[in-house]
Write a structure and sequence with these properties.
Helix content: 40-55%
Radius of gyration: 14 Å
CATH architecture: Alpha-Beta Complex
Shape: globular
Order of helices and strands: EEHEHEEHEHHH
Strand order of the largest sheet: 1-2-6-3-5-4
CATH class: Alpha Beta
Number of domains: 1
Strand content: 15-25%
Number of helices: 6
CATH superfamily: Protein tyrosine phosphatase superfamily
Number of strands: 6
Distance between the termini: 27 Å
């Protein structure tokens, strides 16, 4: 787990299971976190109320999010990103916030990058500039093709959600 901004941390599945005291956590992975939190096997029907995300109590937001080679679809990813920004905003003033995915290299750091760009802690001019700034802070950042294409294409829209 690495702190990338005041009270904002990026981590892996290992960090998720440590149950860090006082943390609010975004679990940016379908397997195992979203599946276990919602209680399903295989794939969840898109009509299910927790298909995209599931809020458990006040401190855990579980995302049905996977790395894909193709661009992330905005009808699914926009609501996820918007909820993540709201979740971080709600907690960051008085709690540490952990955003984790399986390996901590693509989805979770991309969420942290977007948050930091919105707060002007790194460049918000373009995704490429934000990515360069963020990579200096979080060297492990290796976004998948899908999330990278999504952030690049919808960058300006994402800054205003």
């Amino acid at each position: 787990m690495l702190q990338v901004y005041r009270n904002l941390y990026v981590g892996t599945n290992t960090d998720c299971h440590d149950e860090q005291l006082g943390f609010a956590t975004i679990h940016a992975c379908k397997e195992p976190c979203h599946r276990q939190a919602v209680g399903y096997k295989g794939n969840l029907k898109s009509s299910h109320a927790s298909y995209l995300m599931h809020l458990h109590g006040d401190r855990h937001l579980y995302l049905n999010m996977v790395d894909m080679d193709q661009e992330f679809l905005p009808q699914y990813t926009h609501p996820i990103m918007e909820r993540c920004m709201l979740f971080i905003d709600r907690h960051i003033a008085d709690k540490k916030v952990l955003v984790h995915c399986n390996w901590g290299i693509s989805r979770s750091p991309s969420i942290a990058l977007l948050y930091m760009a919105r707060k002007k802690a790194i460049s918000d001019i373009s995704y490429d500039m934000a990515r360069n700034d963020f990579s200096a802070i979080y060297q492990a950042y290796t976004p998948g093709n899908g999330i990278s294409a999504y952030l690049d294409r919808y960058w300006q829209n994402l800054l205003s959600i």
